[in-house]
Amino acid sequence: MNNFSFCNPTKILFGRGQIARLAREIPADKKIMITFGGGSVRRNGVYEQVTAALAGRDYIEFWGIEPNPKVETLRRAVEQCRAEGVEFLLAVGGGSVLDGTKLIASAVYYDGDAWELTLTGRAKGRVLPFASVMTLPATGSEMNNGAVISNAATAEKYAFYTNYPQFSILDPETTFSLPPYQIACGIADSFVHVIEQYLTEVGCSPLMDRWAEGIMQTLVEVAPKVRENQRDYDAMATYMLSATMALNGFVAMGVKQDWATHMIGHELTALHGLTHGHTLVIVLPALMSVMRQQKGAKIAQMGERVFGICEGDANSRIDRTIEATESFFRSLGLTTRLTEEGIGEETIAEIERRFAERGTALGEQGNIDANVARQILERAL
Ligand code: NZQ
Ligand code: ZN
Fold first, then answer.
1. Of 43, 69, 216, 305, which has the highest C-beta tally within 10 A?
2. What does the pLDDT look like over 23-36, one tens digit per residue?
3. pTM, to two decimals
4. Tell me: the pLDDT tens digits for 229-281?
5. DSSP β-ladder status, 156-161 and 146-151
6. Which residues line ligand 1 at a C-beta cut-off of 6 Å?
7. What does the domain layout of the chain look like in residue ranges?
8. Assigned superfamily of 179-379
9. Which residues contact 215 (CB under 8 A, 6 or more apart)?
């Protein structure tokens, strides 16, 4: 087991009616900016609940943080925070709204441009306190310190790290209005978050392996229930908690991590606008296949413990586990091949070029370079 330090300071308020507790969680004297996406919260009653909970408080609203939040939009919010003396940020929406808010919180006191800060990868100096009401289970952003920020002008997308949310409110009822495609992408994203912290070597942490397998099994079990009836409160609650537990640092304790699927996926989003979770289901089965030598023992363990694949020799169990993974993604209603999304050789060449230029070295052994990324993407065609 690797050495690690673990501290997750985010308070989670989970369940029906929890939005009403907002006022108690934000200090009464703070000037608040509430950040939103494109308007889903106006149609599902979340906006009314939030504004009712904060009635009489000093707040302003910032609308229009888009999926894959763009620095061009966030710069405007930073300016507004500075001009109006905002002291606390509350993100209301999906992972994009919260990620964007994390950059806003980090850029207000930064003496430079928000994109320059993104490229450094880490917040510097004072960060405004922030919190969230999360309406889309997927990213784990509600309980982690990461944010993924896009630049429309340069078609780039990078991860950035800052403080943790002070608190996050997770009411499964807010997810009843999600489009089925977002649910599919959210389940896939949560599943792949676990994989990135699991599918490396056997034996790093037997305890964390069991936790990771438990989250994956739970997602596989709950996915059909959620897809059949997304107003099933208990099923949605289970999915929502799984998404949070998948990327809050917990299953990362003491283990090696990969993240190559994500890094390649971010390029597909940057170049084609493909939704994050969807990029992952295209890249992961191909990555498992190309990296089967290195990851074989863990793939077989996953096959046995998550999909119940126990018969046959090691090679055939590995094959069937890769197939089961792809089938699970297809059962969500997602395509799993680049060609199905009209993506081909030109994009593969551009990603290879970008990785070569950046000297990219991904995966738990740092051996997924531009050339291996090409092989993975060719396998995903
Ligand atoms: O913008 P609105 O109108 O609110 O609509 C959103 C958006 O169009 C809609 N939506 C959200 N909640 C809804 C809803 N529609 C109806 N009912 C609801 N309850 O869903 C659409 C997608 O929202 P978005 O926030 O973009 O989705 P998600 O939460 O999947 O976030 C994706 C972003 O997070 C990044 C991704 O790269 C991507 O940029 N990630 C962030 C991570 C992190 N912070 O740790 C890790 C992840 O790996 C991921 O990379
Ligand atoms: Zn993800």
1. 69
2. 999 999 999 999 99
3. 0.98
4. 999 999 999 999 999 999 999 999 999 999 999 999 999 999 999 999 999 99
5. antiparallel
6. 37-41, 44, 67-68, 93-97, 99, 135-136, 138-141, 144, 146-148, 174-175, 177-178, 182, 186, 189, 247, 262, 276
7. 11-174, 179-379
8. Dehydroquinate synthase-like - alpha domain (1.20.1090.10)
9. 190, 194, 242, 245, 246, 251
